[in-house]
Amino acid sequence: MEFKTLGNTSAKIPMVGLGTWGIGGFSSSNSEKDEIGIKALRLGLELEMRFIDTAEMYGGGHSEEVVAEAVKDQRESVFLATKVSGGNLSYDNVLRSCEASLSRLRTSYIDLYQIHWPNSRIPISETMKAMEKLVENGKIRHVGVSNFSVRQFTEAQKALSKTDVVSNQVDYSLTERSVETDLLPFAERERITIIAYSPLARGQIAEQAHGDRWQVLDQITRINHKTRSQVALNWLLIKPSVVVIPKASNLQHVRENSGCVGWRISKEQEKKLNDAFK
Ligand SMILES: NC(=O)c1ccc[n+]([C@@H]2O[C@H](COP(=O)([O-])OP(=O)(O)OC[C@H]3O[C@@H](n4cnc5c(N)ncnc54)[C@H](OP(=O)(O)O)[C@@H]3O)[C@@H](O)[C@H]2O)c1
Predict the structure, then answer these.
(1) Model-level pTM?
(2) Which parts of the chain have pLDDT scores under 50?
(3) Which residues of 27-36 are buried (b: 16+ CB within 10 A; e: fewer)?
(4) Residue closest to 228 by CA, chosen among 275, 171, 174
(5) Per-residue model confidence as pLDDT tens digits over 17-49
(6) Of 4, 28, 114, 141, which has the fewest beta carbons less than 10 angstroms from its beta carbon?
(7) What are the DSSP calls for 13-76, one per residue?
(8) One of 58, 113, 172, 197 is an active-site residue; which one?
(9) Ligand 1 centroid to 213 CA: how many Å?
C-alpha cells in the first residue's frame, strides 16, 4: 500500500480505503448481507486498505456494527472514519452521536470524525465546540468535514482554536470533477486531505459502454494492463491531496481496487483522460 499524509498532521493514511454505503443497509438497517460485507472488509484489510469510512446514518447505524465485527481483532491497525449526520450538529447531539458511534463501533476512539453535511440552521461554532471537546477527551483523533464548500470549510476552520479540520470528503471521480474548480486547489494550498467518495461513480465507470471518452479510458487501460476501475482510481491518486474510498462487496472488486496503487499512469495518459472526461 502507499500512504499519504493526513491534512497538516504527521499521521499517514492508506491512499485507498474502504467505503461502506450499503454494507449493513442503505438508509435503514439490513443485516441479510452482513456476512458478505464482513468478508469484503476483512479481505480489504488483508490487502492493506486499512482505512474504513462509515457513518452513523449508513444502515441506520448498522454499518458501524458490521465494521466493528470486521475490525474486532485488529482495531489498532485500522484508520476508522465515521460521520455525524447533518441533523445532529447541535453541541449536545454531536456528543451523543459520537458516544453512540463509539458504542456501535466497539472502540474507545474514532480516528477521523467527519461532519457528514453542513447544516445552516446550527452555527458551525457550536458544532466545532463539541468536536474540540471530543478531541480533548480522546474520543476522536482528528476532525473532518464532508460536502463542504471552500467558504463553509473556512468557517469551520475559523471556529476551531485548538485543532484543525484535516479533511473534506467530496464526490470526485472521472465523471464528477466539479471539485477541481476551487476545492481541490484550495486543499492543495492549505494541506487538506480530499477524501474522494463515489470514486467509481457508483460502479458506472466499469459499466458504461458508449461514447468516445470510454474508448480513451479503455485504450489507457489496455496499455497499462489494468482495469477501468484501477485506472480511474489511479487518475484520482495522482493529485497530491486525494485519497479514495471505493466501496466493494464483491471480493473480486475488492482485489481489483487494491491494485490501483504501486504504479502510475503517465502524464500524457493523465492529460488524455482530463480532456476526454472534461
Ligand atoms: N460523504 C458522503 O456524502 C458520501 C456519499 C457517498 C458515498 N460516500 C462514501 O464513499 C464510499 C464510496 O462511494 P459509493 O459507494 O457511492 O460509490 P463507488 O465506490 O464509486 O462505487 C461502488 C459501486 O461500485 C462497484 N464496484 C466497486 N469496485 C468495483 C470494481 N473494481 N469494478 C466494478 N465495479 C466495482 C460496487 O459493487 P459491489 O459492491 O458489488 O462490489 C458498488 O456497486 C461509500 O461507500 C461511502 O463510504 C460518502
Answers:
(1) 0.98
(2) none
(3) eeebeebbee
(4) 174
(5) 999 999 999 999 999 999 999 999 999 999 999
(6) 28
(7) EESB-B--TBTTBSSSB--TTHHHHHHHHHHHHHTT--EEE--TTGGGGHHHHHHHHHHTTTGG
(8) 58
(9) 21
Distance 49 CA to ligand 1 centre (A): 14
Atom from ligand 1 closest to the CA of residue 203: 24
Three cell numbers at 131?
A: 468536536
pLDDT, residue 252, reads 98
> What pLDDT sits at residue 203?
96
Give the ligand 1 atom nearest the CA of 204. 24
Closest by Cα among 63, 2, 19 to 200: 19
pLDDT at 209: 79
Written as one letter, the residue type at 274 is N
Contact 226, 258 (CB under 8 A): no
Q: What is residue 208's predicted lDDT score, i.e. its pLDDT?
A: 82
Taking the centre of ligand 1 as the mean of its atom positions, its distance from the CA of residue 11, in whole angstroms, is 25
pLDDT tens, position by position, 145-170 = 999 999 999 999 999 999 999 999 99
CA–centroid distance for 157 within its chain: 19
Whole-angstrom Cα distance, residue 44 to residue 47?
5
The whole-angstrom separation of Cα 222 and Cα 227 is 8
Out of 16, 20, 21, give the residue to mutate to test ligand 1, the one with the largest number of ligand atoms within 8 Å of its CB. Answer: 21
Which residues contact ligand 1 via a Cβ below 6 A?
A: 19-21, 53, 116, 146-147, 169, 197-203, 206, 229, 245-250, 253, 256-257
SS3 state of residue 206: helix
- Ligand 1, residue 55: give the atom nearest the CA: 47
Ligand 1 center to 263 CA (angstroms): 22
58 a catalytic residue:
yes
DSSP label at residue 88: G
